[in-house]
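Why this split exists: single-chain examples teach little about how molecules sit against one another. For that reason, every record in the complexes split bundles all components of an assembly together and asks for one structure covering all of them. Below is a record exactly as it appears in the raw files.
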Amino acid sequence: MKLLYRLLRRNVSAPQLIGFSLVNLLGGLVVLLGIQGYRDFCSFADGAENILSKGNVVITKPVTAVQTIGSMLGLNRNFSKREIDELRALPAVSAVGEFVAAQFEVKASLSIAGSRISSEIFLEAVPDEFILGEYKSVGTARHEWSAGVGSKRIPIVLPRNYINLYNFGFATANGMPQISDDLLGAFTIRLYFDTPKGVVSYDALVCGLTSKINTILVPWNFMMAVNSEYAPEKEPEVSRLILSTNAKDAGDSLLQYIDEKGYLIEGDSSLVRLQSLVYGVIFVVIGVGALFSVLAFLLLAVGIQLIVEKNKETIYNLYSIGYPVSGIASVYLCMVLMADGVVWLLAAVTATIVYPMFAQLMANVSPDFAPASMSFVWMMAALLALLFIIMHGAVIYMNVKRKCR
Amino acid sequence: MIDRIVLGNVNMRALPDAVNQGEPSMLWNTRVEFRKGESYLIEAASGRGKSSLCSFLCGLRSDYTGRISFFDGNCEYSAKDERAVVALRQRGIAMMFQEHRLFPDLSAVDNVMLKSCLTGFADESEVRGMLTRLGLEAHLDVPCGMMSLGQQQRVAFVRALCQPADFFLLDEPVSHIDEGNALVMAQMLTKRVQNDGAGVIVTSIGYRLPYEYDHILRL
């Protein structure tokens, strides 16, 4: 075999091999980093409070100057039954919930450190299946998410940004104490309902905070009961909807539909768009890496063809004296095995070294970003190396066989 | 193992009329049988297809009409598929090419060892001994590209001997060899044939290998 190697490795161009190896190393590294980045970002996006990949999304119609004038003239900008039914029919939507507001005026009063805060507020409710799991409980007491007319205490969920507004705006400016999440559960808010039957008061306990639904929420059965009790003649209008999405890949199609209809997504829509952008960037990165790898693959394949062409007389003479095609091809196959194997091994090693640095950067930006193990990258590197070796091997065997005829 | 080779109405596909030039051929377009243990001299003028016939016999070319069959008892083989051809060249037919087919960058010893390593027939010292016997002691490690045609022919002959064989097929083996070396080659061939009981097929354009031929065939 030593003699065979000596004979056949003539015309093997070292610069060509090095060039192939460098291009393939670069391409392979980018592909592997892209794959790992994609996996980690998927996990991150799944774990994050991502409204389209799982859970709920709140949509509204946009408010423009024209619509403001229209609403002053009594024109309806709420969701119609037909629009709601259309949304229900979307494959990406598993359920649609309506926001129902209290059909009477509501005032709230809260005493903090001897100071009393009083304000007109509004209350809304969404069906229970949309609110459960969407808020973070506060305080130590756990309240049943249910109430009725005459209940002594009503559980409510506040938007987190309300508390932030109080803590970092109102409290700071007025010298009042800030309220922690744990303490919030200890406060009782007095609610006054201005109804045709007179002012009715209820005590409300904050049982949770949500950063996804931007309203003060009360239980659905309570809202139905009080509206029916205190404003039976009024038909609630639906200006906001909460959608439950049912498929991870439904994000884009739902987003497209919402864009087409001119609806607005509350809260996390920027995250959704950012997520699409990041996925796009990752795919472009993987695509560029794959392009480099394919070019490197072709470079070596053409290089092999040239070497075989230059050695065609030698190959034919070897075949003439009894060397089988596979024996002759094995020399070039070993060369390719080394080139492909070493390159993908180096790519995997470099990715394993480089990726944690990138992951650290991501973790600095978002503490929730937790990189997965690099085992998948190693598996992919092994698979791609095997694929390259098999395909290069086939190119070698076919070319050598052709020269033996 | 091959005990006979049968040519059934074989003719060159590319130059079928070449057989009609000069004397009638005893090989083309007829049935001929080469038997193991017997020796054959195929004589012909240049261009009558000696080298083509050799290439057909060792499976290097298949551009012929008719049929070439290799028999082991009653078992018949053809040299159409690659595995059969490789086996034929490694163990069945030891071929010495008219154009030598040596590797110019390799030394005389390495050229022979390239074949011997494949067949496991002789070690380097034996190879050196055979080459020395043919007067190549000063050229053992000289690249074949720097040798004369006669020296190259002797290297090619030694290479042909370095394998087990049922038939030795030598295409104009002494066209560039002096009488003394031709005699040594004949002695070496005789010894191998006596050991192995192989058949011998030698082609010649006129100056023949001094060997005791059982049959002389005109192509």
